[in-house]
Structures are given as structure tokens and as C-alpha cells.
Amino acid sequence: MPTAIVHHPVFEKHDTGPGHPEKPERYRVVMDALRSDTELWSDVVEIEADEARRGDIQACHTPQHFKHVERAVREGTGYLDSDTMISMHSLEAALRGAGAACQAIDALMDGTAGNAFVPVRPPGHHATPDRAMGFCLFNNVGVAARYAQSRHKEIDRVAIIDWDVHHGNGTQGIFYDDPSVFYFSMHQYPWYPGTGARGETGHGRGRGSTLNVPLRPMTPTNDQRRAFDSAIGEIAAKFTPDLVIISAGFDAHKGDPLGQLLLTDEDFVQMTRVVKQWAAETCAGRVISCMEGGYDLETLGETVRAHVEELQRER
């Protein structure tokens, strides 16, 4: 089955202001790179993203947080914290971003696609239940995981694989005491937002359902890849998912201005391959990938294109 690309032009209209690294051009270079590969693009299923329902957002976020974002956009506040800028189209973009992740799951479950990629803006993995931060308004992968569990009886256990250079503190926090969602993050440490130490493994019934692999700046690529492969093996030994969601940040790329790790396009392809193989063995290959970071406009498009090409490749 084909790979679905779930997106919407409003992702480019989320205006973060001059000089902001999470800029509209990120969506444009990604879509240009995907469309310019005519062989790849001819084989994908393109789906226009709808807005997520308020109830689906509030499965991960407090009503007060939803209202705060809604009010700030309506009033033209301009920012939610020092890093997280908003504009008149930001609420629609955030709602369609979370909605796109949910639609990607529907496309897998109804047989429209075998897996999916969501080139979403704004990103989501720093958004906590009650706070927007780190460029993120709503937690796209968190909303998608809860949506999958509530809407599809076949999905009970979800694995979230986060390879963004920054730790996904928001995603970790949402599921920290929930054994039905395994959260794994491999990230530079210490680095923004300061969380993600090895000792953070979950709380209560969720203890053991969080795995953090913190990496020193300039970690050799081979060491990082070995750490990733080892972590997937460790998770697979104790957790069998019904769905795998990738928090696909591409800011661990060696050229990225917001990170100090050294991955190349081929490393992202290999990690994608490992996740696909695990999903094929455990959950009928059900993988959705949601874009998080990635801020080097010179490399981002090709890195994403290579990632989607591997998603699309038959085993």
C-alpha cells in the first residue's frame, strides 16, 4: 500500500515573525522536495488535513490551555512564551496539524495507506497538557496516540519514537504514568528544554514505559546509531505496540543550527528502516511519522524526501 502525505497549505501560513527558526519556509522546502521527486510523488496518497476536534485536543490538553491558545490568536497577542510565536492563522494550523496526525491513523486503519508522513507546522512535542512552549501549541503525536486508542478498537498500545535533537518533554509528560503508551527519546543532553535524563523512566503504573537516551554534543554518528538500534531492541523485548508514531525531528542533522549532533540523511534512512522493520513484526507495519524540528533549509527538504522514500519502499 502507498504512503499517505497528510498536509494543508495553512501550515505555511503559521507566521512566526522575522528571524524565527521555525519559519514558514520549512513547510515549503519539504513539500517542494517531495513533489520534485516525480516517481515518489506519483506513488503517494495526498490527503488534505482537517481540523482536529476540540475533544481530541483535550484528550491531551486542559480546556484552559485550549482556551488560552484560542484567545491569544483571536486577540493577536503575538507570543505564548519567549520562543512560541503566533499569528492569525496559527490556531487553524495547529488544529489541522493535530487533525492531520489523526487522519494519518485513519488512512492506515481503513486501508488507504500502509504508512504516513505528516509535514506539520507548528511542531508539537514540547507542548505539555497545560502549556505551549518550544515552538509547539498542541502535542500532535500525543493527540494522535489518544485518538488512535479511542477511535480504533485494534489499537490499545502505542509506541512513540522521538529522534528530534531536543527532548520531547511534553509528550513524555502526557504519558508518564500510562503503561499503554511507550515513549522513547534520543536527544542531545544537556540541551533545551533540560529534561530527558536516563533516570526519567515513568511514574506509577507507567514506570518502565519511558526510555531516554541522552547524547553528548558531537556524539559520533556510529555511536548514536548503535544507541538507537539498541534502544529499539530493548523496547521490543518488553513492549508490543499496535501502532508506532515517529516524532520525526530532523534537527539532529549535522548541519542544523539548533543542534550539535552529526546525523546524515543516510542515518535517518537507516533509523526509518529499523522502525519499519519493528512495526512490520509487531503491528502490520502501522507507522505514522509527524515532523517536529529541522531548521537548516539547505538540507531539510532532501532529508525528509529520503525519509519518505524509505517509508514508501517495499520491504
Give a nutshell description of this structure:
38% of the residues lie in helices and 14% in strands. By secondary structure, it is of the alpha/beta class.
Describe the protein.
- This protein is α/β, with parallel strands linked by helices.
- The protein has 10 helices and 8 strands.
- The protein has an 8-stranded parallel sheet with strand order 2-1-3-8-7-4-5-6, with helices on both faces.
- Strand 7 (243-248), helix 9 and strand 8 (287-291) form a beta-alpha-beta unit.
- Helix 5 crosses helix 6 (140-151) and helix 8 (221-236) runs parallel beside helix 9 (265-282).
Topology:
Elements: E1 3-7, H1 25-36, H2 38-42, E2 45-48, H3 54-57, H4 63-75, H5 90-109, E3 115-118, H6 140-151, E4 158-162, H7 169-175, E5 181-188, E6 210-215, H8 221-236, E7 243-248, H9 265-282, E8 287-291, H10 300-312
Parallel strand pairs: 1-2, 1-3, 3-8, 4-5, 4-7, 5-6, 7-8
Helix pairs in contact: 1-10, 5-6, 8-9, 9-10
Low-confidence stretches: none
What percent of residues are in strands? Answer: 5-15%
Mean pLDDT: 98
Query: How big is the Rg?
Result: 17 Å
State the separation between the terminal residues, measured CA to CA: 12 Å
- Major β-sheet annotation: 8 strands, parallel
| Beta-strand segment tally | 8
